């Protein structure tokens, strides 16, 4: 796996003038493990888009895209530029390397344990035209890689049949809701908001609820991320998580009061599914430390019993040896 990831990363970097020097020293040693609840906010702003997230075991990454009138490629950036050709493409940074990883791993996911990657695509330019171009692009990949993306096919009852893939694409930003609802087949789902909770929308259309932290927690519920989370804020957080999970959806907040353990902790404790961060290493290490803490330590009684058992076994062996010598 180690040589595979190195080859893929160097290949992508060599083919693109946007990424810079070879990533040989910092690409993932393997994709054997994933770290749950990790979302790489504006992932493309890191020095090595996608690969830094994978190196840290992230299960979700975010890419903002633009479609320019003078260009047919989807360009990745947070803000518009005068010359779009200076920007990397969604295919170069994400779709092609994910295709290569999924093909080589060949277990239904991106990681060796079968864990898929959620790719949150935030549309920054006009919604319908940008999404149409994205759909065409995803369809071109799906033709040769039918298990690459989650695929949603409208059935006779008006619902959707879903085939899971190695990459779960979800559309955020300027989301063309009506257009996506009109499609008979999609390779992407829709990113919901607070107003979509409790509306009975199937998870095959809205699998994820994402919204500004301050939309939920303002006024008396406001918290600046320092000290202990207020009881009322925690109770509301638990309630929101329960509502979203009750609809078989997952939850993410953006614009957190702090990007630090003081906030990651309450979100982790409340079972928020994706914790937004720009600090990839920090969040990955924090969640792994929490996972280690959840493994129960042997009790003192168990430990003492182990010592006594060992002592008794040793005593019996010595007694047996003495009888043989005698």
Which key phrases capture this entry?
326 residues, alpha/beta, 3-stranded antiparallel beta sheet, disordered N terminus, disordered C terminus
Task: Compose a concise summary of this entry.
With about 325 residues, this protein is of the alpha/beta class. It is about 40% helix and about 15% strand. A hairpin with a 6-residue loop joins strand 2 and strand 3.
Account of the protein in words:
- There is one protein chain.
- With about 325 residues, the chain is an alpha/beta fold.
- The chain has a single domain (about 1-300), classed as Phosphatidylinositol (PI) phosphodiesterase (TIM Barrel), CATH 3.20.20.
- It contains ten helices and twelve strands.
- The strands form two sheets. It has an eight-stranded parallel β-barrel, surrounded by five helices. A three-stranded antiparallel β-sheet has the order 6-5-8, with no helix packed on it.
- A hairpin with a 5-residue loop joins β5 and β6 (about 160-165).
- α1 (about 1-15) packs antiparallel against α3.
- The protein is globular and about 50 Å long.
- Mean pLDDT is about 85; it is low at about 1-30, about 300-320 and about 320-325.
């Amino acid at each position: 796996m180690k040589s595979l990831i190195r080859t893929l990363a160097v290949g992508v970097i060599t083919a693109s003038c946007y990424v810079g020097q070879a990533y040989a020293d910092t690409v993932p040693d393997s994709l054997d493990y994933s770290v749950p609840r990790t979302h790489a906010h504006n992932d493309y702003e890191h020095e090595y888009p996608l690969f830094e997230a994978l190196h840290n075991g992230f299960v979700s990454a975010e890419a903002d895209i633009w479609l320019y009138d003078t260009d047919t490629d989807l360009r990745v950036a947070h803000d518009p530029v005068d010359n779009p050709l200076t920007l990397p493409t969604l295919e170069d940074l994400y779709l092609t390397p994910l295709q290569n990883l999924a093909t080589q791993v060949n277990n239904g996911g991106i990681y060796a344990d079968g864990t898929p990657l959620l790719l949150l695509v935030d549309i920054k330019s006009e919604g319908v035209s940008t999404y149409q171009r994205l759909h065409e692009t995803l369809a071109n990949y799906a033709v040769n890689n039918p298990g690459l993306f989650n695929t949603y096919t409208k059935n006779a009852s008006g619902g959707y049949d879903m085939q899971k893939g190695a990459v779960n694409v979800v559309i955020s930003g300027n989301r063309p809701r009506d257009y996506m609802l009109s499609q008979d087949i999609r390779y992407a789902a829709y990113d919901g908001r607070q107003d979509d909770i409790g509306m009975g929308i199937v998870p095959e259309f809205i699998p994820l609820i994402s919204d500004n932290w301050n939309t939920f927690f303002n006024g008396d519920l406001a918290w600046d991320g320092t000290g202990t989370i207020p009881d009322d804020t925690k109770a509301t957080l638990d309630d929101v998580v329960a509502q979203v999970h009750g609809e078989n959806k997952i939850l993410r907040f953006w614009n957190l009061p702090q990007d630090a353990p003081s906030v990651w902790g309450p979100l982790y404790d409340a079972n928020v599914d994706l914790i937004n961060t720009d600090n990839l290493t920090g969040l990955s290490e924090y969640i792994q430390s929490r996972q280690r803490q959840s493994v129960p330590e042997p009790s003192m009684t168990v430990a003492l019993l182990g010592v006594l058992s060992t002592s008794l076994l040793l005593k019996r062996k010595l007694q047996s040896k003495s009888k043989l010598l005698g």
